[in-house]
């Protein structure tokens, strides 16, 4: 089975209004047009324009992604109606199944598109965030039902808001309707670390409902790097500044290390995570593998001494570390799976890097940084791995993670 673990489904303009709870319609996101004719994702209640509604095209050099923004910044009138021009395969379940046939994929996970960015614009309004995540979750169930067993949309949830009742209800709804995974932002949760005991109810709810939490490189109201917004004020790019990109592995490394070192996986040994579009380069750097004699060094990326050395030092020098049942690096390899990019040394990860059971195939279709013919693109860099390793990479690991036969 070829299982693409990284595809996105574009939310159609009225999706939030159509699927929002009736008493939350005033909080639903909408599509509006500005004076130049550009369609924007918009929050009526906060009067906030968020994101230009534009399609993207794999391997087009980011033209489809950046051109609308550049033209808007130059105050040029919109020349293309991206709403009318959006291909059906970007927004419609049955059309997406047809697209899977075109690229040779049997099954695909589906993540939100605009859901990866809009939360940052209403960070202080948990009511808006929850209402629109609920709308996506209702649509995700409908898409799964229309997908004929080929589509696995994720849910989208947040740990924010203090009371975990909303999260538990959402996960119960998703699980009862066959959804196998849900995006959740990595980083501090209203100032609390992810491993905080207050969040144990959340991790239990994920497990009780058979849902795998997924960290995506951009999700909701959290930067890829996890850096505080003060570092990025006036940076000019609301999505991905140069500083944010430089430290794009930092946020997930801190989140994973926190979950491991503070004993979450001893409390919940069946809990597993997936990371998407973060590459697998963050994994060995966190373990502390050294290719050049520098602790924590992998290629040109230098971290600290890694999980195991740091945990051992704390135990000796400070004597107040959480007493783990295993080495921290063992939890990392057992509890995290990651999609990879064909520019990474995937064959090396699999053959000699100890990540045979951790890396997964993902096309990122239809984003501009995604791949139009992903099987060909990935196949060109996977020479030398065994058929069993290939089977795991292209679908076996993903299916096992989600409990799909």
UniProtKB/TrEMBL annotation:
SUPFAM superfamilies: Metallo-dependent hydrolases (SSF51556). Signal peptide: none annotated. It holds the Pfam family Amidohydro_2. Gene3D superfamilies: Metal-dependent hydrolases. It comes from the Bacteria. Keywords: Lyase. Residues 134-404 form the Amidohydrolase-related domain. This is Amidohydrolase family protein. It comes from [Mycobacterium] nativiensis. The lineage of its organism: Bacteria, Bacillati, Actinomycetota, Actinomycetes, Mycobacteriales.
């Amino acid at each position: 089975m070829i299982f693409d673990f990284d595809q996105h489904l574009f939310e159609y303009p009225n999706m939030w209004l159509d699927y929002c709870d009736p008493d939350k319609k005033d909080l639903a996101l909408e599509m509006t047009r500005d004076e130049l004719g550009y369609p924007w994702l918009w929050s009526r209640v906060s009067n906030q324009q968020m994101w230009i509604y534009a399609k993207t095209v794999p391997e087009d050099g980011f033209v489809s992604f950046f051109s609308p923004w550049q033209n808007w910044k130059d105050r040029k009138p919109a020349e293309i109606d991206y709403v009318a021009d959006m291909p059906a395969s970007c927004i419609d379940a049955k059309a997406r199944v047809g697209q899977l046939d075109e690229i040779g994929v049997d099954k695909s996970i589906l993540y939100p598109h605009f859901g990866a960015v809009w939360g940052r614009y209403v960070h202080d309004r948990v009511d808006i965030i929850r209402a629109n995540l609920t709308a996506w979750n209702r649509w995700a169930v409908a898409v799964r039902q229309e997908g004929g067993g080929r589509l696995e949309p994720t849910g989208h949830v947040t740990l924010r808001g203090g009371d975990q009742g909303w999260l538990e209800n959402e996960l119960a709804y998703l699980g009862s309707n066959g959804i196998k995974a849900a995006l959740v932002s990595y980083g501090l949760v209203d100032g609390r670390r992810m491993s905080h005991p207050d969040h144990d109810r959340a991790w239990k709810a994920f497990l009780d409902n058979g849902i795998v939490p997924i960290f995506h490189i951009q999700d909701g109201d959290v930067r890829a790097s996890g850096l505080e917004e003060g570092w990025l004020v006036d940076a000019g790019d609301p999505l991905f500044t140069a500083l944010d990109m430089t430290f794009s592995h930092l946020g997930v490394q801190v989140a994973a290390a926190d979950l491991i070192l503070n004993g979450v996986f001893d409390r919940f040994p069946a809990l597993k995570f997936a990371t998407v579009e973060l590459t697998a380069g963050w994994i060995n750097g966190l373990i502390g593998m050294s290719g050049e004699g520098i602790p924590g060094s992998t290629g040109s990326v230098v971290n600290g001494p890694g999980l195991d050395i740091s945990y051992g030092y704390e135990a000796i020098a400070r004597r107040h570390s959480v007493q783990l049942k295993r080495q921290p690096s063992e939890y990392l390899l057992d509890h995290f799976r990651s999609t990879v990019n064909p520019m990474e040394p995937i064959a090396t990860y699999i053959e000699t890097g100890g990540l045979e059971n951790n890396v997964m195939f993902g096309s990122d279709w239809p984003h501009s940084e995604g791949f139009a013919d992903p099987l060909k693109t990935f196949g060109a860099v996977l020479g030398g791995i065994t058929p069993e390793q290939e089977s795991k990479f292209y679908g076996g690991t993903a299916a096992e993670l989600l409990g799909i036969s």
